Amino acid sequence: VVQSDISIDISDPFTTQIFKIPVRGSSCEHRVCFDLDAYLESMSESMFYVWKCPHCGRDAPPLSLMIDDLFASVRARLEKEGKLIVKTISMSVDETWRPKEISNERDDVVELDID
């Protein structure tokens, strides 16, 4: 079975909101990004400046951060469409994408009747 689409999280690991300026370190080998401002702010509030990617742990000092133009355009389109609540997109190999719908159903919740 060949999977034609992959799910990509577009929410920042610090704020859990969609990133404003999507970046990743130059040594990162993944597609996911994090928000530039949230990253810089979280590091400046830390007693220790450990500039590590929040996704993979590789070195990610400020001068190594790269803006991802594809995800910046994803954010711009979602903002234009009023869909900044989206947290995940489904992307094809040709880099066409669509927002993944948020399900209101939770399979992991079991309600117990305790009398």
How would you describe what is shown here?
- The chain has 115 residues and is of the alpha+beta class.
- The radius of gyration is 17 Å and the shape is globular.
- It contains two helices and six strands; from the N terminus they run βββαβαββ.
- It has a three-stranded antiparallel sheet with strand order 1-5-6, with no helix packed on it.
Task: Looking at this protein, list some descriptive labels.
115 residues, alpha+beta, three-stranded antiparallel beta sheet, 2 helices, 19% strand
- Our Rg estimate from Cα atoms comes to 17 Å
Mean pLDDT: 86
Instruction: Spell out the helices and strands N to C.
Output: EEEHEHEE
Number of strands: 6
* Straight-line N-to-C gap: 48 Å
Q: Largest sheet, if any?
A: 3 strands, antiparallel
Strand residue percentage: 15-25%
pLDDT < 50 runs, ≥5 residues: 105-115
Task: Give me the secondary-structure category.
Answer: alpha+beta
Work out the helix count: 2
Global shape: globular
Strand order of the largest sheet: 1-5-6
Approximate helicity band = 10-25%
